[in-house]
Amino acid sequence: MVHIREQAIDQAMDDWASFIAQGAKQDPSTPIALVGLISHGDILAQRLIKRLAEQNCQARYGALDITLYRDDLSMQSIKPALRSTYLPFSTDGMKLILIDDVVYTGRTIRAALNAIFDYGRPAKVELHCLAERQGRELPIQPNFSAFRVTDEGADGVTVQLSEIDEQDSISY
Amino acid sequence: MTKRFIKNATWAADGSQIDILLEGSSNMSDGLGGSMPVSGSISPTGQNAPPADAEIIDATNQFILPALVDMHAKVSQPGKSSSLAIKLASEAARQGGIGSMLVMPTKSHSFDNHADLDSFRDAVKEQSCIHMCPAGHISIGGKGEQQAPYDTLAARGVRILSDAEHSPSNLLMLQRAMRYIAELGLCMAIRGDVAALSHMGSMHHSETSYKLGLHGIPACAEEIGIETLIRLAKDTKAKLHIQTVSTAEGVRILQRAGDSVSAEVALHHLIFSHEDIADYDTSFKTQPPLRDKSDREALLAAIKEGSIDCIVSDHTPCAPFAKKQDFHTAPQGMLGLDTFLPAIYSKLIKTDKLSWAEVIRACSSRPAEILYGHEAHDFIRPLILFNPNVSRSIEASDLPSRCLNSPFLGAELLGEVSFL
Amino acid sequence: MKPIKDLLTIGALSDADILSILDNAIAMKEIFTKSVKKVPVLKGKSVLTLFYEPSTRTRSSFEVAADRLSADITTFSVSTSSVVKGESVQDTIDTLMSMKMDYIIVRHKNSGIPGIIAKHSKAAVINAGDGSHAHPSQAFLDAFTIREKFGEVAGKRIIIIGDILHSRVARSTSLILKRLGAEVAYMGPGPLVPPTAHTGITRFTNWEQAFAWQPDVLYMLRVQNERMDAPFFPAGDYHKAFGVTTERLERIAGENLVIMHPGPVNRGVELCDEAMDYSNSLINTQVENGIAARMSILYHLSPQTKNHD
After folding, report:
1. pTM of the entire structure?
2. Which domains does chain C have, with CATH numbers?
3. How many A/C residue pairs have CB atoms within 8 Å?
């Protein structure tokens, strides 16, 4: 079992925010929104927005619940609880950065892309994640990943964030 | 002549131990009252030795009692020929311990003319394994408009008149009919009902009817009907038998009326209440409807103290298809014959609600008196042996009626009847 | 929580089911504000509306709900004149089985019919109103509306006014509100209020008692003349005795009470004209929330149609 601890995650968040800020500088006319995938992605998006503000880079915050777009809903007899999607702005012409904790099969991202396009027509969509894991089932690649984990273990990757869990950690 | 010696049996009426020597066997009766080729002698256990040529039957822990007499059954079945329906009903009755019954007129057994009575008697002779006598119609076709030909019916042996589930609403017609039959010595068997108050409903007006969203039938619809019938009978001096009393207030009305009126209760009203309808179980849709538990207790007490004379099956076979409809649309009625004595034993005797003596009075002696007069012969009531040690979970194949509207389907009942 | 196939009555649901349907209705309502007002939850699933009783509102509410979940909707028209008493339901069930539907939404004038269809069907059956028995989707939209207005249902006082006897709405809505901790009272003409002592629902006979109870919501029921076989109360007195009259509306407005009604309103019977424009009337919100509640119900149920045979 490998553990990535708080300090390493904190460092990675700084790098992540810088990566976004740099992108923003290259295309200053397109407004940016960080859209976190519920749950964990939305918390990461909030952290990033705080760091970006310190670097004088403005980004709007959104949170997306992709449950209704999942491709395995009809196979579940107990339906997952729905959360509120929070997109208090028009996404038309914006650069949307989807924030997720772990990118693995790519199915969640497929659902998120379908969901986000039901809210409008963004100029550009990027995918950023905290941890990228092998095992893609769809042709989807993140534009940024803070960590690359190469686990073969059966337990998968667990991300904890102190806002809703006990601590910050990535375990695999 | 075969001889059978039954030893160590319990005489149900008083619990004494007896032996019985029987000669001949009872399997058939003829339609309107012929003799049964059985004769026998009863003695205290051990008093007489069995004859050498007798078959010995050990009846330890089994009960012997006279066969039951049911004053209220319908035998016709939609989609089945009259003779088949008679055969099935008689087999069901026999399984339920019933040796003789009064058959209510129905659409297919319209007992308002001599031809139908004759063909019914012929069919019973050929098909029935128990004694069946018909109740004549009060009105032509049971429509409540024109009196049936009472002299003709009486000449064919009819002693009881009834329009089955219909209580005549034309009181003038009924009053004149009562006056007429009073002089013929016939008896009217009628259910108390004011149709204007009851016709919209499909179950007892109660918490359950509120819960299920079904129109309720108020108890007073029956009670006003009973009161009206009793007044008319007093006025006309006609003999009156109140059918299927189902409410506590109905019992009090009967108590006030005294001995001039006889009355019956359907077995299901002594066992079930409206809660048993549960989730629209159409097998529990009856007429009158299943009432409150408090009514049930009052009816049991009335049987004990005699203000209600008889327990009847109110047997009503319904086509399985018809009972699969929704509760409001489904027809009323449940099977009663097939499980009659096992149900009485399991639900009333075993639970100490009624004694064997009370059951024999209400299900055999009193109905025999009402139906056949005080000279009721033994041939009407052959002896039956009841083995309470057999337990059976009732399945469709246990119902000779070949219908499914039994309240006991899937339930466990004790007891098995054999005719001696 | 166990998966459930059908929605027939409120009584058959667990607390977890009720809360889950109410919670998810919030997210369902948010879909209405998107530029694309659809989600692919029921893509490729077939929904049948089977209404034996005329109803424009409930039927279209269910159809919009199914449509927003991307289901395919079939309308099975049952002309009431051709319905041979009773027979049709059995025959229709056979027909429905052959159609391999995933969801069947039924309304019928006889209590218990949706239960019969549910028993014989692998499809998820939703009771859209049966006789005087139950109307669970209405109960959900009412509870959802009260929750949205007040934040929570518990502790609120709701008085249901009118023809309780024939009302499946009164039965289902009172059940769900009580389950959620509200206090419920009934008021109506004597012959139209059934015995309810066992349900713990208070009975009032006039407006003075009703006002004195300090209710939060006045829930007006439709006077359903079509369900009455014979007159139940003196003609012409209803509005004066039990309706929201112009004078009563002033007091209602003064006390800031909420008015609800399942629709359609008989103007001048349950409500005076002015009450239709009353600022604290939630009647239109109920219609909008009906769609969200019904989407949430469709989402919650689990048809057993994966292996149709």
Report:
1. 0.90
2. 15-135+288-304 (3.40.50.1370), 136-287 (3.40.50.1370)
3. 48
